[in-house]
From TrEMBL, chain A:
Belongs to the URM1 family. It comes from Ailuropoda melanoleuca. Signal peptide: none annotated. This is Ubiquitin-related modifier 1. It is found in: Cytoplasm.
Automatic annotation (TrEMBL), chain B:
GO terms for biological process: tRNA wobble position uridine thiolation. One of its GO terms (cellular component) is cytosol. Residues 226-244 have a biased composition (Polar residues). The keyword tRNA processing applies. Residues 220-255 are annotated as: Disordered. This is Cytoplasmic tRNA 2-thiolation protein 2. PANTHER family: CYTOPLASMIC TRNA 2-THIOLATION PROTEIN 2 (PTHR20882:SF14). InterPro entries: CTU2, Rossmann-like_a/b/a_fold. It comes from Ailuropoda melanoleuca (Giant panda). The keyword Cytoplasm applies.
Amino acid sequence: MAAPLSVEVEFGGGAELLFDGIKKHQVTLPGQEEPWDIRNLLVWIKKNLLKERPELFIQGDSVRPGILVLVNDADWELLGELDYQLQDQDSVLFISTLHGG
Amino acid sequence: CRDCFRAFYIHKFRAVLGKNRLIFPGEKVLLAWSGGPSSSSMVWQVLEGLGRDSAKRLRFVPGVVYVDGSQVGLGHCGPSRLPPPLPCAARENPLPTPMMLPPGEQGHVLWFPLKSFVELLTGHWPRPILGSPVGVTPFYPHFSEGAACGQSWKDRARTLADVKLILQTVGFPWHTVALEEVFALPPSVLRCSAQEPVGTMGNYKVAVDSFLQQEHMLGAEGVGGSPNSTQGEEQLGQPCTQDPQHPAGPPPADQTEALSRLFDSVKTLTAKEELLQTLRTHLILHVARTHGYSKVMTGDSCTRLAIKLMTSLALGRGAFLAWDTGFSDERHGDVVVVRPMREHTLKEVAFYNRLFAVPSVFTPAIDTKAPEKASIHRLMEGFLLRLQAQFPSTVSTVYRTSEKLVKAPRDGCAAGPRCLLCMCLLDVDTADSATAFGAQTQDCSQMRPPTPPAEAPTVPCCSTEVGRVQNCFRGTKPCGREDSRARVIEQLCYSCRVNMKDVPSLDPLPPYILAEAQLRSQRVWLPPRASPEIQEYLVESSDD
């Protein structure tokens, strides 16, 4: 049983367009059976925060290629990608590298 | 490790510049800034590089240009989606409060005329607020006819303000141009100027040594004289320059109309993107030439170049890959386009910008939120990035391939006719009727007054020229629409021709393109070639 988590979710590089233009979201993830990891977080974001065009952000289980994910300013590849377990007061940043030049 | 990453990143930038030895000390270099992460990173690198101690300092004189293409940069919000209603306050007072800019500023201020979107909602066309002469100008959002996107005028104005702020922070002399100004460009933009002698290794070393000597002497004498180094300092202190070409006012509404008409008339997103790219290049080239910049730096990153390489292949630009994706692009002659960010991947750029707080401005582009298959560019981007996710060396492999491309002119003839739009040497062969390209040219010639069908390879040459003669020399008969279109199409390379297929009418094109096409087609008659001229007389007399 995981306690509710307070996490800061941030979007950059154009990804905020899909979230009403709001870059920073302070979210409180409700308590649930399994511990929160990035996989669950993505599902949660898709259900609650994503306003339009889910295919531009999420592809299958993971994010679309071209979107960088940083957890506490560290590349998520170093932390186990989707399996990283979220801690309280973590900061997850999604940067879209696709837009602009 | 943050510090190692930073050192590595900066080193790559300097190494790319140093390895190619194209930028001479004291040279004026224009940085093409789009607001996006790569070009912002590039501008920041230049800023940092110029500020260092003298031994490793970058030694050129920079300026920044920002092309505002937001009039056409509206994404796809879905055909059935209506634009969100303006907030009530806006409805009563549809114009934002004027942006107050610092009084001393003289930079050219961008202007967005209001479009029919607000007219629809409010039922009337709001009158502009007149501000004080210098620097205070109202900003209006612009929405093109077809695709009004979710961006409100507030966002648009905010973007503009961010752009201004960043340009001021950077401190280089800056120029902003609106995309509408393509309608005011002179045809000379499309002409390749005489080439400057390309600096050899020996020249470069000599130039650097003499520059260092100069600096040393000046330092010893303690005089802040006229040579380039101190001039560079002075220019850095200058906040901005006013572009002499434009008055400090809005581009005329008819230009914006013309621009949106042009882009609305283009049928596919691929052609739109290519056209936008071409127009933007011409604008930047014009700014560079007007202000005496001999080099232009663009922020194309490794990932972008790999995508560009594959996209160019798909678009039929295979012959020009070396110019499109190489480090330097000398097709314009006097102005050389340089790509210093080409060894940095987008991921590195994003990380750097995040970790070291490089400011950038997000502006929606023409392909924002476009679905995957909307254009060839999007398709290729999706393809490469997905492949990259599973095979991490994809992008670098494609990029390395681009490094190996050599710029050899076709058949050894360096001075041939150039494409009207992209200014590359024409890769066309009018006698080549057997290829797909030849079939395309046949199509063009058939649009004219009937000429004998082409059987032998040489006949299309003559018949096209004969056709042209018939149109030009028969003063009484006006040149038909198809003829003027065919005349322009003839002067384009293969990929530009394919793009033009998606442009149903050439009328909305900016006048400088059509004027130059006219000029060139008349000029073609000058080279002394006996047989076509004789042919011409024969046909005319037989018709008479």
